[in-house]
């Protein structure tokens, strides 16, 4: 797999290793289980839920992550201290090779956080016909990742919306999708998508705001009937969609989406403040 660790050091089974030596990535042949966590002010955002999802992904494909939660948080702390980096995405990766024990990696990856202009104007997205084999398991599929990223680049898009064989939009290539129609928010049913941590918190924010969330897929034939939409993810929070292929939307100006954005950002702020207070 790609030698994607950035900065000066990464972690292998709790040991600090220089990124000058990334031979371990050459040994990973079987699709590993992984998770990406955003580090903000030195705090791993929603750490507990990310690790829980990582373990669930492993169970779905018949594997076990043996590294304990305390060891994993220790790995992340070592990574932050060794690199003196407090704001970047960290990737956790559990890999198995034939006849060998688990290799657990923690490393920083290239991370992109949209600026205010992107949130203000929204993003261009495209439709991409593809279905995940195990939608609830976060397993690295290098060929899919390369193919969809190539298409996104060709079309000058930010994200690709995955469409199943029935014509329904399930999720994004690296995100969860939400659509707004009237005073309701629509998102794909739990069993058909990767259950994003950000997705879960957005649904909770909607409940607190008394916004109805309907777990129902949107068919591409009905894209003219929606008022807007947004994607959610570790790095992007709540990011409005300005277009899907040639269809235009005023998502960035939608009051419902604005309220959800504000609610989610307040949740993130409160989480970081709470974790910092516990560390004092």
TrEMBL record:
Protein's UniProt name: Branched-chain amino acid aminotransferase
Keyword Transferase: yes
GO BP: amino acid biosynthetic process; carboxylic acid biosynthetic process
Alphabetic keyword roster: Aminotransferase, Pyridoxal phosphate, Transferase
PROSITE patterns: AA_TRANSFER_CLASS_4 (PS00770)
Alphabetized InterPro entries for the sequence: Aminotrans_IV (IPR001544), Aminotrans_IV_CS (IPR018300), Aminotransferase-like (IPR036038), BCAT-like_C (IPR043132), BCAT-like_N (IPR043131), Class-IV_PLP-Dep_Aminotrnsfr (IPR050571)
An example Gene Ontology CC term for this record: cytosol
């Amino acid at each position: 797999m790609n030698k994607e660790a950035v900065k000066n050091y990464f972690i292998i089974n709790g040991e600090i290793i220089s990124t000058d030596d990334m031979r371990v990535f050459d040994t990973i042949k079987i699709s590993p289980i992984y998770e990406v966590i955003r580090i903000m002010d030195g705090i791993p955002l929603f750490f507990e839920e990310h690790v829980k999802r990582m373990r669930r992904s492993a169970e779905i494909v018949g594997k076990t992550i043996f590294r304990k939660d305390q060891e994993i948080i220790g790995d992340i702390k070592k990574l932050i201290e060794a690199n003196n980096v407090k704001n970047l995405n960290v990737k956790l990766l559990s890999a198995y090779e034939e006849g060998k024990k688990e290799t657990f990696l923690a490393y920083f990856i290239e991370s992109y956080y949209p600026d205010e202009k992107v949130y203000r104007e929204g993003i261009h997205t495209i439709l991409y016909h593809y279905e995940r084999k195990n939608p609830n398991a976060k397993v690295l599929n290098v060929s899919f990742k390369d193919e969809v990223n190539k298409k996104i680049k060709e079309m000058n898009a930010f994200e690709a919306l995955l469409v199943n064989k029935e014509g329904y939009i399930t999720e994004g290539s690296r995100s969860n999708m939400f659509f707004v129609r009237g005073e309701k928010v629509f998102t794909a049913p739990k069993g058909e998508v990767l259950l994003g941590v950000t997705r879960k918190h957005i649904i909770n924010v909607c409940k607190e705001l008394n916004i109805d969330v309907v777990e129902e897929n949107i068919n591409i034939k009905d894209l003219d009937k929606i008022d807007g939409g947004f994607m959610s993810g570790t790095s992007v929070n709540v990011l409005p969609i300005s277009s899907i292929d040639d269809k235009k939307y005023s998502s960035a100006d939608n009051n419902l989406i604005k309220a959800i954005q504000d609610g989610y950002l307040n949740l993130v702020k409160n989480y970081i403040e709470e974790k910092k207070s516990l560390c004092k």
